[in-house]
Amino acid sequence: MIKNTTRNQKFGWVLFLAYLAMLVYFVFFAESFGRDPAQREYAYNLELFKEIKRFYQYRHQLGMEAFLLNVVGNMVAFMPCGFFLPIVSRRSKKCYNATWLCFGLSLCIETVQLIFKVGSFDVDDLLLNTLGGVLGYLCYHVVQQIRIRRKRHAKTET
Fold first, then answer.
1. For 94, which of 21, 30, 39, 137 is 20 to 30 Å away at the CA?
2. What pLDDT, in 10s, does the model give residues 99-111?
3. Residue 104 within a domain
4. Domain residue limits at 88
């Protein structure tokens, strides 16, 4: 870490690392998410929206829970990434940098899944994860605006 980090940035790093550890566990090891060690085949989808359409089309057979877990779950899983990146990295305070870093992390995870045959490489997941990172960044931006307004309001009262 950089010497000039604030207490909030250090706390942000701790939360970000804890988030990454949980993300790695759920993506690679959680059997409840279909991570069966016996399944050792290459699985990939390179057609954009193919899996999203499939989950939506067969939502009655698969259940709405499976559809939501796939679509919403992939976005929600990366929202903390987009939220914490601007806290821990000055470069990520710009939306496009945070977006590219979320995309890069998602691409690394999907590639590792393909190489080690854990889960599947899916371009839909790349899209949904990146979108989740952008939503997380927007949440960070909203929180920052609220903090700035509160500080201004507190100064005018004194």
1. 21
2. 999 999 999 999 9
3. yes
4. 7-34+41-157
136 found inside a domain: yes
Answer yes or no: is pLDDT of 125 > 90: yes
Reported as a pLDDT band with limits 50, 70 and 90, residue 2 is low
CA distance 76 to 129: 8
- Structure-block tokens of residue 118: 């854990």
Region of 117 (left: φ > 0; alpha: ψ -120 to 50; beta: rest) is left
105/81 Cα distance (integer angstroms)? 9
| 2 assigned to some structural domain | no
Number of domains in the chain: 1
Contact between 43 and 120 under an 8 Å Cβ cutoff? The reply is yes
Q: Is 79 in contact with 136 (CB distance < 8 Å)? A: yes
Does the residue 1 lie in any domain? Answer: no
Predicted TM-score (pTM) of this structure: 0.89
AA letter at 67: F
Q: Give every CB contact of residue 108 below 8 A, 6+ residues apart in sequence.
A: none
The answer on pLDDT for 157 being more than 90 is no
The alpha-carbon radius of gyration of the chain (Å, integer) is: 18
Give the pair of three-digit tokens for residue 14. Answer: 């701790």
Element containing residue 45 per DSSP (H, E): strand 44-45
